[in-house]
Amino acid sequence: MLAAPPLDDLELARNIAAGDRLSFETLMRRHNRRLYRLARATLRDDAEAEDALQEAYIAAYRAIGSYRGDSMLVTWLSRMVLNECLGRLRKSARRQNVIPMAASDEVEAAASEDDRDLPDRQLVRAEIRAMLERKLDQLPEDFRTVFVMRAVEELSVEETAVTLGIPEATVRSRHFRARSLLRESLAQEFDIAERDLFDFGGAHCDRIVAGVMSRLNS
C-alpha cells in the first residue's frame, strides 16, 4: 500500500489552524534544520538560537490562520524566525549599547553516529567545521545570514531575496563578499566544511519539538 503524499503548505497550515498538533509537529520537523541555521547565523549562539526558534514557532502556531499561501510556508516561517532574532538583537543592543561581536568559544566536535569516515578524518572535519563556524560568526550579520541561506541551506537567490526582503542583486553581492572573506581565512578547507555548519542532529530536533509541544499543552 502506497503511503499518502505529504500535505502541501496550505493544507498543512489549515490543519494546524484547526488545532491539529500532529500536523504542527510535522511542520517543525520538516523545517527545523533550515530555521535553526537561520537563527544560529543571526544570533551566533547555539542556546539562544534554539530559544528563539521555539518562540518563533509559538508565534507561528498562533498566527498560522493568517497564512494564505502567497509565499512558501518555509519563507513565512523564516520571516517569523528573523523577526524574533532581530528583536533579541535590538534588546541586547539597548542593554549593552552595542551588539556583541565575540563568537562563542564552545565547539561541538563530536562526530555523527552515522559518519562512517575514519576517526582521524572525523576529527579533521570537526576541527575545520568549528573553525569555519567561528570565522562565519565574525562576519557582519548581513553577510552571515545570506551565506547560511545560500551556501549552507542552498536556497536560490530568489528564495533568499524574498525571505530577507532585499533585491536579488544584493543577495548575490553579499554572498560573493562573504565567500571571499571566508576563503581568505580558510583557503581550501572552506569547501570541505561549508555544508556541515551548525549541525542540527536528532537530539536538537527532538528538544525543539518537545519544548514547543510542552508549552502548547500547558
CATH class of the largest domain: Mainly Alpha
**Low-pLDDT ranges:** 97-115
* CATH topology-level name of the largest domain: Rna Polymerase Sigma Factor, Chain: A
Average pLDDT rating: 80
Helix percent reads: over 70%
Write the CATH architecture name of the largest domain: Orthogonal Bundle
Number of strands: 0
How far is the N terminus from the C terminus? Answer: 38 Å
What gyration radius follows from the Cα positions, in whole Å? 18 Å
Tally of structural domains: 2
Our estimate of the beta-strand percent is: under 5%
The arrangement of helices and strands along the chain is HHHHHHHHHH
Question: What oligomeric state do the depicted chains represent?
Answer: single chain
Question: SS-based structural class?
Answer: mainly alpha
Major β-sheet, in short? none
What does this structure look like?
- The protein is an all-alpha fold and 218 residues long.
- It folds into two domains: 1-103 and 200-218, Rna Polymerase Sigma Factor, Chain: A, CATH 1.10.1740; 109-198, Winged helix-like DNA-binding domain superfamily/Winged helix DNA-binding domain (Arc Repressor Mutant, subunit A, Orthogonal Bundle).
- It is 70% helix and 0% strand.
- It has ten helices and no strands.
- It has helices at 9-17, 21-43, 46-63, 73-96, 119-137, 141-152, 157-164, 168-186, 189-193, 202-217.
Short synopsis of the structure:
With 218 residues, the protein is mainly alpha-helical.
